[in-house]
Every structure is written in structure tokens, then in C-alpha cells.
Amino acid sequence: MRSFGGTPRTGGVQRWSYFGKLQWEVRTGEISFIELAMRVGQSQYAFRTDSCGLHRANGLYLNPTFSMYLMATKNLAFGLTLGYEYDNVLLKPEQFCLEALPNERIGVTEGPIQYFMIGLSVSARFRKGEEPMDYY
Q: Where in the chain are the domains?
């Protein structure tokens, strides 16, 4: 927690998300496919500091994603995922025993924790292939 400027704090933030996932995928070629997915559930946060103790917060979790995959075998594909995460949990100075968050601009209101994500992804299936792939 070094980002608190001149106010040293020891501690951490832990997050748990419980969700259900709805997805749709379509083949775009012989060895490629795309996937659209939406995860909906609940996030739980635990904010811990040495001087302030433990503060917990819960909120709605939303995570729409778009992924593009290339198939390595019938059951294994590697891809790139782009997404957006939204947790309806506020990051407040009180959770860290502060009067204000450092570098906070005047007039900026507190909002939910949210961020964009980009990452490498793996898609695996556990089924027997009917016939060998023709592109080897």
C-alpha cells in the first residue's frame, strides 16, 4: 500500500467473486472462433490495515468479455480476451483510516470499483474427437 503518499500503511485488499456465466460462441473459420460471455454475481472485499483493522464490503459483480481463439487441437484453443469488470463496491478513505484518499482531485465523487481487462486465455473441452483435424 505504498500509494498512500506520505502516510505509510501496512495491509492489503482481498477480493472474492462468486458468479454464473452465460456464453455464446461461433466458429469463424476452420481453426478459429469467437466467444461473447457475461458473468453476473457478487463480489466480496476485505480491506485490512495495521492501524484500522478489517473492513468488509459486498456488491454486484458484472463482467462482459469478448474473446478470439485459435484452435491448437479439437479440444484445446488459445486466445485473447478483452473485458470490463464492474464491482458495485466503493473504495472509501474510511476503509484505510484516512480522511481522504491521496491525490484525490477536488470534485471527484466516489464511484464503484471498475476496470478494463486484457489477457491471454485458454479454452479446453473434454470430449473425444470424431476425426483428426485436417490442417496438420
A: 2-124
